[in-house]
Amino acid sequence: MGTVSLQGRSILGLEDFKAEEIERVLDVAAQMKRIVLSGNKKKDYLKGKSIVTIFSEASTRTRSSFELAGKYLGADVVNITKSGSSMTKGESLRDTLLTVSAMGTDAVIIRNSSEGAALFASKVKSPKVKTPLIFNAGDGAHEHPSQTLLELFTLREAGKKIKEMKYAIIGDILHSRVARSDIYGFTKLGAEVHLTGPRTLVPKKLEAMGAIVDDKLEDALKDADAINILRIQLERAAGGFFPTTREYARLWGINRERLALCKPDVAIIHPGPMNRGIEISHDIAYDEQSWIQEEVRNGVAVRMALLYLTLTEGKDIETDY
Q1: Which of 84, 219, 290, 293 could form a disulfide with 268 if both were Cys (CB 3.0 to 4.6 A apart)?
Q2: Single pTM value for the model
């Protein structure tokens, strides 16, 4: 399956990933998906390993899929949320990390509202305890590497050739960590990444990362092979960057008419949760060209691949399922 190794590596973002490393994760994810779909999901590849998730932001898909990924591979998984931990008593992130490290944890999966939190976590060390691997499950508006990997995997399963494809990201790009990881991941595999949305929500500086910023929605959608419809992040005050959600839906929402500008076999993805009727119409959300629900299933497989490749030698998986 290849000799690319990720063993012992923290997954902080795709900025420092090579194309062949991304491909390696996708290849192993394909094997992991066969396990997920089998009648025997419980394996012992990570038996004896312990994983802790520390989420200071709400999450359904990412936290649950990381937890299931670890458990399917035989690891012990413990979940920590801000509301149920000593962080509500004023404990710092550094002390929380040192605490779980002292318990013999092999990996810590972290979601935090601050950009750079995962990088900070990877540098928290103590001379008396083993430092666990850190997995970035979203740090502010910086990166969300596993989300991009599952999107790449989903589009590959949809029969899309990533190299030279036109990939359009639409919506609240200013607050989106997914968009930034997408730019890194998709361009490294040879895709042409287009960004569009209200000018207040699409920073021009992202062109320096290799993306193309389109002022008109029609330009981004024209002949697109795949589109990623981003959620309007009202909890990050995104609503203050355009007049009303009704106005946003009228000017930027993806509906049947606008979808017709894309290639006939365009694949639709969305990181979730969806604001149906705002950034995406109800019928498009569940259209046959929508791969949104498949993304959720693929998220478990991709996160299984990441845990397996970093916490083991990453040898080929036995096909005993």
Answers
A1: 290
A2: 0.94
- pLDDT of 162-212, one tens digit each? 999 999 999 999 999 999 999 999 999 999 999 999 999 999 899 999 999
Is residue 120 classed exposed, middle or buried when 0-12, 13-18 and 19+ CB atoms within 10 A define those classes?
middle
Q: Is 164 exposed, middle or buried (0-12, 13-18, 19+ CB in 10 A)?
A: exposed
Contacts of 33 (CB under 8 A, 6+ apart): 297, 298, 301
What distance in Å separates the CA atoms of residue 98 and residue 119, rounded to the nearest whole number? 15
**Under 8 Å CB-to-CB from 17, ≥6 apart: which residues?**
145, 184, 185, 188
Q: Are 181 and 142 in contact (CB under 8 A)?
A: no
2 residue type, one letter: G
- Supply 256's token pair: 């049947």
Extended beta strands in 230-300, E state: 267-269
